[in-house]
Amino acid sequence: MIRALALALLAVVVTAPAAHAASPVSLTDGFYVDPDSNPAVWVRDHAGDGRQAAIKTNISTKPIARWFGAWSGDIKTAVSGYVNKTGTKLPVLVAYNIPGRDACGGHSGGGAGTPEAYRTWISSFASAIGSRPAVVVIEPDSLADFGCMDSGKVAERTAMIKYATEQFKAKAPNTWAYLDAGNAQWVPAATMAGRLDSAGVRNVRGFSINVSNYHTTAASTAYGNSVSGSLPGYTKPYVIDTSRNGNGHNGEWCNPGGRKLGTPARTGGGAEMLLWVKVPGDSDGRCGKAPGVDAGKFDPQLAFDLVYGY
Question: Does residue 103 register a pLDDT over 90?
Answer without folding.
Answer: no
